[in-house]
Amino acid sequence: MFKRALALCFLLAACAPAPTPFSGPMVIGDSDPVRFSGRQPTTFPVRGMDAARFQTSVDWARAKAVGIEFAFLKATEGGDLLDIKFKDHWAGAARADIKRGAYHFYYFCTSPEVQAQFFIDTVPRTRGTLPPVLDMEWNPFSPTCQRRPDAATVRNEMQRWMDIVTAHYGQAPIIYTTPRFYEENRLVAFRNTEFWLRTTAKTPAEAFPGQKWTFWQYTSTGTLPNTPGAIDINAFNGSAAAWDAWLERRTLR
Fold first, then answer.
1. Which of 22, 80, 221, 238 might form a disulfide with 32, Cβ 3.0–4.6 angstroms?
2. How many angstroms separate the CA atoms of 45 and 58, rounded?
């Protein structure tokens, strides 16, 4: 009986379909590319992506094959909203050997202390992962929170969240933001903080004059092989050697 079962297993294995080969353009694409004035984001040697629940299926192996080196993954929003795809994306990026980090979307009707603890309870402190990210932008579509504090209050709440998260992960968070939010809340005040800037029509120098940046989200219409839908694509501000040095300095220990 054992020999017969073993033979059947080998037969089934032999008849199983082979893995689907890579198909389609093997590149990081863009369905609606922008020609920027100055240096084009596609010339930066290190590029990555970000993903949330809207990316229902990501072929992480193919993303790595075409040059995706890092991924920022939405983990939490406010004090109780867990992104339903976070665990899948977190595991998938790791299997593909893509450097991964998690981000928190800030909610203005819950204290920063509650939000920081929720993020800590959700995102594992894993050696080698990227620093946490605080996503700061106005959300005009929120059905439950229309609060827009003044700039000083915004910065105070941001700092309280970042202090708690820094103490837990041992790395200071990166701030992600948009031109409007940055200007209205005078985020230039965070002089010793790294920034991940969203600007899809202008360069960071044009949209955020004088602001240093580490990551640039330059398109929301990116494409990857075997991954449906539009993808946010990002560039790291530096050479491949600078990327390695940054990882040595800024990944979790």
1. 221
2. 22
Indicate whether 134 pLDDT > 90.
Answer: yes
- Would you state the structure tokens that stand for residue 170, as one six-digit string? 């041992």
Q: Which residue has the tokens 């032999």?
A: 14
Q: In percent, how much of the chain has pLDDT > 90?
A: 86
Diameter of the chain by CA atoms? 75
Cβ–Cβ < 8 Å for 128, 171: no
pLDDT per position as a tens digit, 4-62:
444 444 444 444 455 455 555 689 999 999 999 999 999 999 999 999 999 999 999 99
Note whether 205 and 186 are within 8 A (CB): no
pLDDT given for residue 16 in this prediction: 45
- Domain ranges within the chain, ordered by starting residue: 24-32+43-250
SS3 annotation, 114-167: HHHHHHHHHCCCCCCCCCCEEEECCCCCCCCCCCCCCHHHHHHHHHHHHHHHHH
Query: Two tokens at 80?
Result: 């109780």
Mean pLDDT across the chain, nearest whole number?
92
SS3 183: helix
pLDDT of residue 92: 98
> What residues contact 88, with CB distance under 8 A and at least 6 apart?
none
CA dist 170 and 174 (Å) reads 13
In CATH terms, the fold of domain 24-32+43-250 is TIM Barrel (3.20.20)
